[in-house]
Design a protein that fits this description.
Blueprint lengths: L3 E4 L14 H12 L3 E5 L4 H11 L5 E3 L4 E4 L2 E4 L5 H13 L16 E3 L5 H8 L5 E5 L4 E5 L4 H12 L6 E5 L5 H5 L3 E4 L5 H4 L4 E2 L4 H15 L1
Parallel strand pairs: 1-2, 1-9, 2-3, 9-10, 10-11
Antiparallel strand pairs: 3-4, 4-5, 6-8, 7-8
Length: 226
Amino acid sequence: MIKAVATDVDGTLTDCEGYICVEAITTIRELEAKGIRVVLCSGNALCVVKALAKYMGCTGPTVSENGAVVEYKAKMMILGEKGAARRVVQELKDAYGSEIRESWSNRYRFVDMAIQWSRDIKELRTIVKKFKGVKLIDSGFAYHILDERIDKGAGLLQAMKLLKLQPSEVAGVGDSITDLEMLRVCGFKGVVANGDPRIKKIADYVAKEEFGKGFAEISRHIISKN
């Protein structure tokens, strides 16, 4: 029995332009009405993810900053080292100047720092590797720098503890390679049609539809199986 659905946001609930699919919101309400809690798992900052969860009707914890920040019922848990990613961003700016453009949300972040695509990720990693315990990942929408011990799977496991649920009771839905660890800790794994081929390999269900419509398709499958 699935009691919670953990879902990525960008590329899973939204299209490539960042617009949330109305059908996805409607399906979230259907899941919640049936007692299936929805947990948003995103690379975005807590303030963004919490607001989305509130207005879409998600009652589960929020997992933001690629797993580094977990919030539930006004209590916040920060995983990973603060400040390390900020030092890396400054080093990248020293090396590449104005080519390194930070996300507006970085001022509200605790562990994960986001920068817009500019240089090839392999080139940037040569600098990031100078810093111990830090990694650089590509979400498909931005580059993220964060504590190498942290991922969406680690954050979701904390969210499961808060909900007192076992992994077998949680379904995960995603599209990006940054969702891999999140899906791995879930009892059921769904991937939208536009998803990365690497995560489709471990999926229990690959949607025929892309983006938010794919999320709705997977959610309806979960409801029917319940």
